[in-house]
């Protein structure tokens, strides 16, 4: 993992704008809850839509990335786990290649987007992914 750490955010905070992300591109964030619990997540932009997942490979519960903000394979077509070479569909988090385990998929995180600003809801994290097109 690189020495650069993901930015700390709280439920309800703005994460970034859609324009802050390459298309396709990713950015990591660390959600800090009032009770002290922390969960690292990442946002993926693809074709003008935004998706978000917990940074946790379902195979052995390790981080997917080895550098902050790098979560895609080289051609930037799938989310990639550097530990297992597993690949996941960007839009759904479903595993399409890698160690097969029952129910292997990424945990989606609910995000909202208003006028291009991507935010976390105040409650319900992690939850269901809500894809958003350009505003």
Distance between the termini: 33 Å
Question: Strand-and-helix sequence, N→C?
Answer: EEEEEEEEEE
Helix % is: under 10%
Provide the low-confidence segments as ranges: 127-135
Largest beta sheet: strand ordering: 1-3-4-5
Basic shape = globular
Number of helices: 0
Sheet-strand content, in percent, reads 25-35%
How many strands in all? 10
Oligomer: single chain
Short description:
The chain has strands at residues 7-9, 14-17, 25-32, 38-46, 49-54, 79-81, 86-88, 95-97, 112-114, 117-119.
How would you describe this structure to a colleague?
With 135 residues, this protein is mainly β. Helices cover 0% and strands 33% of the residues. It has no helices and ten strands. A four-stranded mixed β-sheet has the order 1-3-4-5, with no helix packed on it. It has a three-stranded antiparallel β-sheet with strand order 2-10-9, with no helix packed on it. The protein is globular, with a radius of gyration of 14 Å. The C terminus is likely disordered.
Write the layout of secondary structure elements.
Elements: E1 7-9, E2 14-17, E3 25-32, E4 38-46, E5 49-54, E6 79-81, E7 86-88, E8 95-97, E9 112-114, E10 117-119
Parallel strand pairs: 1-3
Antiparallel strand pairs: 2-10, 3-4, 4-5, 6-7, 7-8, 9-10
Keywords:
135 residues; mainly beta; three-stranded antiparallel sheet; 0% helix; globular; disordered C terminus
